[in-house]
Amino acid sequence: MTTDDRPPAARPGALKGATYGDEWWRHAVIYQIYPRSFADTDGDGIGDLPGIRSHLDHAVDLGADAIWLSPIYPSPGLDVGYDVADHTAVDPVFGTEADFDQLVADAHGRGLRVILDLVMNHTSDQHAWFQASRASREGPFADWYLWRDPAGFDDDGTPQPPNNWLSFFGGSGWQYDEPRQQFYMHTFLVEQPELNWRNPEVEAAQWQMVRGWLDRGVDGFRLDVFNAFLKHPELLANPAREGESPWDRQEHIHDRDSPDFPELIARFRSILDEQPGRMSVGELFASEPERAPALFADRHLVFDWGLLAAPWSAEAYAAAIDGRERYFGEDRWLANVLSNHDQSRQATRLAASAGIDDTDAVARAAAVVLLTLRGTPFLYYGEELGARDVPVPDDRIIDPPARRALVDPDFQWWNRDLCRSPIPWTPDANGHGFTTGSPWLPFGDDASVRNVETESADPGSVLSTYRRLIGLRRSTDALRTGRFRRVELATPDVLSYLRETATERVFVVVDFAGEGRTVDLSGLGTRAWRPVGGTHVEPSTPGADGSLALRPLEAVILVEA
Ligand code: NOJ
């Protein structure tokens, strides 16, 4: 028998963050991959699991600790994978079961963990559970979805929905189903029926599925719209309120955020805790950040959208950051995110919100904020390149609510295709190293310069900036785990804050204005601040008088010398 006396974290093959034990995710940077858009190995224009495997080194070079895969399960694809027909398997469009197991093995071999996106609020209407449920009011699956009798019938005999709940994707949240002569509820598409989480058999089936993925080596889960799982047991109508859209004209107190939800999420956590070191994060659906703390469980993170919703101004960022620190408190760990597969790309969104043309400069400054705040940063593939929204003509729109918005004047929607375009690996206009076929969504017209190969060669690129910042974060305890304290400097348009441990003090200062600004650091109790990183390859340095002249959109990270 051979023994390895090195601590587990130092042994070959150790996962990143192993030094930090089961709570590695507090120290981690997590990289979201949208599988369709990452790398295509079979020429069908759609990314696949072998493609992700062949580009794992990109996540490693970036400095990520884990990859989160948007849904990879069999799906009719109406909500581009969030309509799941079988939560226990891999969609053949992405590869085979063996491809998935090999991906986990290869990722682990590089120290990377693998996080799956679990869509447990609803299924596709093609899921075997729903097929059985709609077939009979008596069968074993009869009560697995939210079925209700009509509230009545109008003069024409048309059945009326059981209550006023709406679909987030437009229209009523209820669909009348002839086979059962009943309505079923759907928060999203008609083809995404809502599961009945108050049925213990549903819960048991979900945990069995979760255990299956854990047994295959999956390191954690992102839970889709998790605060919608439990509805009011009597399905009470939502009260009305003022608002600009039908959805906003309801107070959504009975169709989400149920007071007994924390007990459910604690039961989920206990399944994960059967195996060491598994992480989880729940996506807060259509709720304000102040509602997030009520949805926490021990060792479970919550994505709130406080930071993501802020426009690019020092004032708005300060308000968002202060609000989140206040609501969550020091004891809850934050999940920090600026982009995902549902939102306009941060380079486009933030630059536009401030009327700034240089999207790369904004992307670099936003990266400094994201990677130096308290909490775990989640990156969305492409943001590390400064990727921008890629326009899609109306007749090529894929996102179903965006298609509805074309024909329903009551329904407003931003086309999510724009933030889902394939990642360009190379300048080669013939598929950009993503595909040899025709990509499922177009590349941006900047792909010949804003791609992985070109940016890797440029120390000033957004990609090189992300790599440097993540490296700095990894080697700086105060940035990963330090206390957070915002600091008001007298200079307008500048955001600044301290991160502190018992032995280390880091000061972050960010110019939002697009014009140079000079700040005075002399009030911070020391003059010995040494720049260690930021937006620029050579960060600006404070003068002997404690003043620091920032270049336009420059962010500087300083360590107390
Ligand atoms: C939230 C996901 O992020 C989004 O992409 C999806 O459309 C809805 N959940 C419905 O599953």
Mean pLDDT comes to 95
Envelope shape: globular
Q: For the largest beta sheet, what order do the strands appear in spatially?
A: 11-10-9-3-2-1-13-12
Q: How many separate helices? A: 13
Low-confidence stretches: none
Which small-molecule ligands are present, each listed once? 1-deoxynojirimycin
Question: Helix proportion of residues, in percent?
Answer: 10-25%
Radius of gyration from CA coordinates: 24 Å
Percentage of residues in DSSP E strands: 15-25%
Number of strands: 20
Oligomer: single chain
Structure description:
This protein is an alpha/beta fold and 561 residues long. Helices cover 24% and strands 15% of the residues. The protein has helices spanning 49-54, 56-62, 97-109, 128-135, 200-215, 261-272, 314-328, 346-354, 359-372, 400-407, 452-456, 462-475, 477-481, and strands spanning 30-33, 66-69, 113-118, 147-148, 152-153, 159-160, 174-177, 182-185, 220-223, 279-283, 301-303, 335-337, 376-380, 483-486, 494-500, 505-511, 517-520, 529-534, 547-550, 555-560. The strands form five sheets. It has an eight-stranded parallel beta sheet with strand order 11-10-9-3-2-1-13-12. A five-stranded antiparallel beta sheet has the order 14-15-16-20-18. A hairpin with a 4-residue loop joins strand 7 and strand 8 (182-185). The model has no long low-confidence stretch (mean pLDDT 95). Bound molecules: 1-deoxynojirimycin (NOJ). Residues 79, 82, 119, 188, 224-225, 341-342 line the site of 1-deoxynojirimycin.
